[in-house]
Write a structure and sequence with these properties.
Radius of gyration: 18 Å
Pfam family, one: ECH_1
Family: Belongs to the enoyl-CoA hydratase/isomerase family.
Number of domains: 1
Strand content: 15-25%
Oligomer: single chain
Number of strands: 11
Number of helices: 11
Helix content: 40-55%
Distance between the termini: 40 Å
Largest sheet: 7 strands, mixed
CATH superfamily: 2-enoyl-CoA Hydratase, Chain A, domain 1
Order of helices and strands: EEEHEEHHEEHEEHHEHEHHHH
Structural class: alpha/beta
Organism: Termitidicoccus mucosus
Low-confidence stretches: 264-268
Protein name: Enoyl-CoA hydratase
InterPro entries: ClpP/crotonase-like_dom_sf (IPR029045), Enoyl-CoA_hyd/isom_CS (IPR018376), Enoyl-CoA_hydra/iso (IPR001753)
CATH architecture: Alpha-Beta Complex
CATH topology: 2-enoyl-CoA Hydratase, Chain A, domain 1
């Protein structure tokens, strides 16, 4: 993907100072992740990694969401084989974020749940707009996080906080996550875009070799997401996804969402 290319699902733009901003571009669906968006994002991140002019990568969302999680319309209709392939693509995405030579900054501009929160947790640095709502709500659908979210949140915030977030599925605010040390900076909405741009430009102004060395060394000092735990997570998620309880919860959630869009509401 070439810099400044406008993709139907992704905006990939590079500024003269070496900051490459990749924007999830499904605002009407709160940037929900589907297979096409995930594939485009992997390609954009790989291109950023290979581009010597790119010094810093910023991930953000169009509209009022960073990313609201998986696209349940696509997700619910998957066969078990398609589900497994989707999860494998997700693992590839998190790997290309963490393994990217360039610092990756998640700029959480709004709702950030499920896979969106896992993308942020895989990033090197997290900035957030004041009042942003985040979380791992999968338990509310009789599921569990599928992208290593519990492990990465535990690394950043501690096991107790990660289990609390995942087991309750509760909303975590940007301010709470800042208090935990998960979010580096919280900016007011009216200045968020400018502050993110300034922060990224300041990083890009550093010499790239030591900046990349800092990322590499710091990453090496933190235990990686454990392969056995990831395998267990994927096996369990696949089982819950195929269970009658999981299917029923997904269908119930989709029905409520459809009701809200048509103004008919329904129990929340």
């Amino acid at each position: 993907m070439n810099p400044d290319e406008i993709h139907p699902l992704l905006l990939d733009q590079r500024s003269p100072d070496g900051v490459r901003t990749i924007t999830f571009n499904r605002p009407d669906q709160l940037n929900a992740m589907n297979r096409a968006l995930m594939s485009a994002l992997i390609s954009a991140l790989a291109a950023a990694n290979a581009d010597p002019a790119t010094r810093v990568v910023v991930l953000t969302g169009a509209g009022r969401a960073f990313m609201a999680g998986a696209d349940l319309k696509e997700y619910a209709g998957q066969t078990r084989g398609e589900f497994d392939a989707f999860q494998a693509l997700g693992r590839q995405l998190y790997a290309v974020i963490e393994g990217n030579a360039k610092p990756v900054v998640a700029a959480i501009n709004g709702h950030c749940f499920g896979g969106g929160f896992e993308i942020a947790l895989a990033s090197d640095l997290i900035l957030a707009v004041a009042g942003a709502k985040c979380g791992l709500p999968e338990i509310n659908l009789a599921l569990i996080p599928g992208g290593g979210g519990t492990q990465r949140l535990a690394q950043r915030a501690g096991l107790g906080r990660a289990l609390d977030a995942a087991m309750t599925g509760r909303v975590l605010t940007a301010e709470e996550l800042h208090g935990w040390g998960v979010v580096s900076h919280v900016y007011a909405a009216e200045e968020f875009s400018a502050r993110v741009a300034d922060y990224a430009a300041a990083l890009a102004a550093r010499e790239p070799a030591p900046l990349q060395a800092l990322k590499r060394i710091a990453r090496a000092s933190v235990p990686a997401v454990h392969p056995a735990a990831m395998a267990a997570e994927n096996e369990a998620l696949g089982r819950f996804f195929a269970s009658p309880e999981g299917r029923a919860k997904i269908e119930e959630f989709m029905a409520r969402s459809a009701g809200r869009k048509t103004g008919k509401g329904g129990a929340r």
